[in-house]
Amino acid sequence: MKKDFISIKVSSHTYAQFIDKTLELINKKKSSYICVANIHMLVEAYQDEDFATIVNSADLCAPDGMPLAWGMRLLYGEKQDRVCGMDLLPDLLAQSEIKGIPVFFYGGSNEMLVKNQAFLDEKHPKLNTAGMLSPPFRQLSPKEEAEHVDMINGSGAKFLVVALGCPKQEKWMARMKGKIQMPMIGIGGALPVMIGLQKRAPVWMQKTSLEWLFRLMQEPKRLMKRYFVTNTVFLFLFCLELAASKRPNIKATLN
């Protein structure tokens, strides 16, 4: 169940249903990928048709940001849960621990993966970590890419967590569909937050759609241009989308 939202198609499930749908993909051992969409991803897809095709071909596409959840409510008149990657990742790992699902982690620096292993040992001691791999920060050769695919498939993992950042991780997952024989989820910045390398916004900021502002205060140089440009573009596009969605109702009232 996906619904059109400007440039992408967003899965309109509750948070609990999204967890269940992900576990269904894992149980089916299906080569698939899951996108966790925020404003940045939506605007990237609007500006790049090829990237939009990648996002819209995902088996599931979660409305990560509060603007997406609120926007879907305004457009379709239905309550839409926010499916935030920072909540989704630890919850999926907890379910994997309970159900004995081996998990592989792909992406991030070696230092981050060492920190991740220490976090998992403390918080999820019974989780079967099938492997972790930090790829080079450059384009891989075909041989290197094939070696990584073989390593992941041969690890015994049934679920792959991908932390390469948007849009790199979505493009990588789309290219790996049919090669990596398990569901993949791109979680962007959720991993460093989960393991304590970055702080998460207070709950009141999460609920009022200001989590982006908290992240901006932590990394102003890196995020200043992205947030102000993408947020402005998003507001413009959403106003157009909302106005277009109301036109049939206005015409019906006039008639």
Characterization of the model:
The chain has one domain. The chain has helices at residues 15-27, 39-47, 49-56, 66-76, 85-99, 110-123, 142-153, 168-176, 190-194, 203-207, 211-218, 220-254; strands spanning 2-5, 8-11, 32-37, 60-63, 103-107, 129-133, 159-163, 183-186. The strands form 2 sheets. The chain has a 6-stranded parallel β-sheet, sandwiched between helices. The protein starts with a strand and ends with a helix. Mean pLDDT is 90; it is low at 250-255. The chain has 12 helices and 8 strands. The protein has 255 residues and is of the alpha/beta class.
- Note the overall shape: globular
Approximate helicity band: 55-70%
**Biggest β-sheet description:** 6 strands, parallel
Mean pLDDT: 90
- Lateral strand order in the biggest sheet: 4-3-8-7-5-6
**Distance from first to last alpha carbon:** 32 Å
- What radius of gyration results from the CA coordinates? 19 Å
Number of helical elements: 12
InterPro entries: WecG_TagA_CpsF
GO molecular function: N-acetylglucosaminyldiphosphoundecaprenol N-acetyl-beta-D-mannosaminyltransferase activity
EC number: 2.4.1.187
Keywords: Glycosyltransferase, Membrane, Transferase, Transmembrane, Transmembrane helix
Q: Key features?
A:
255 residues, alpha/beta, six-stranded parallel β-sheet, 15% strand, globular, disordered C terminus
